[in-house]
Amino acid sequence: MSFLFHESTLKDQHILITGATGGIGYDTAKVAVQAGARVTITGRNEEKLNELKADCQDPDRVFLYKADLTSTEDREQLLTAAREQNGPITGLVNSAGIGGGDMVEKLSEDDLRKIMELNYFSLVQLSQAVYNQMKGVEKGAIVNISSLSGLRGTHGNSAYSASKFAVTGFTQAFAHEAIEHHIRVNAICPGYVDTEMGRNAIKSKGEREGRSYEEQLEIAKDGIPSGRLTSPVEVANTIVYLLSDAAENIVGESVKISGAASCANLIKKRAGVCSPLPVSTI
């Protein structure tokens, strides 16, 4: 896909991207740099962060900082280092997250806590800290990565879905407070995205239902009217648009990117019956 933004779209902006070692975060960093931003990338895999920095159009505008966002100390050190390197943060992309979980009767307390801790609690806590900085200049944009599963439940996906419902609800409520300070908060709600996490989700669903990855992938694509998974750069382009001044009156929205997937039209071509909605993948 060709580059869609002018190189000054995010000029003079400092964008912090969490989960930058994942598919969506990785491509968002690349697109944000191409759009003129200074970018801070963070994740737990320093080798992957270095790979991403080298892969960006202008590596000199990329600052990397390894951090565990579930750690209060790591979050504080990340924000201090990012501000010292690139100045005040004007845009935050909360892309860090994990999938997983199981059928309700098989869920462990550890699984539930792990998913909620990263997907929801650390997102809120980081957003609080960045928001307090943004209020000082009365300007900013925050984009949270939620999911189609954060708008409606899916079979065998209760823990992940609950965490993403929490992100969607937080986004909508937070947006009412933040816009009073000219700070826009929105969420992206993708369906299946062609990332490692997405492929793992398809594989796991296939294993539960006794199918190969290839068979389950075809079923997933059959359930999407566009006939394909979303690419991570398509999500990244939408994120950068929401960060830009072009989206200045888009506030508190949950933007779906799903190839037209919905309860009414998710029809399996082979079986001729309504198919469960796909889970989002980061």
UniProtKB/TrEMBL annotation:
What does the UniProt keyword field contain? Oxidoreductase
Give the matching Gene3D superfamilies. NAD(P)-binding Rossmann-like Domain
One Pfam family here: adh_short
Task: State the superkingdom.
Answer: Bacteria
Instruction: Write out the GO MF terms.
Output: oxidoreductase activity
Q: Which SUPFAM superfamilies match?
A: NAD(P)-binding Rossmann-fold domains
Q: Tell me where in this chain the Ketoreductase domain is found.
A: 13-196
Q: Does the keyword Oxidoreductase apply?
A: yes
Please verify whether the record's keywords include Lipid biosynthesis: no
Q: Give the matching InterPro entries.
A: KR_dom, NAD(P)-bd_dom_sf, Sc_DH/Rdtase_CS, SDR, SDR_fam
GO BP of this protein:
bile acid metabolic process
The UniProt family comment states: Belongs to the short-chain dehydrogenases/reductases (SDR) family.
Q: What is this protein called?
A: SDR family NAD(P)-dependent oxidoreductase
- Organism (species): Rossellomorea vietnamensis
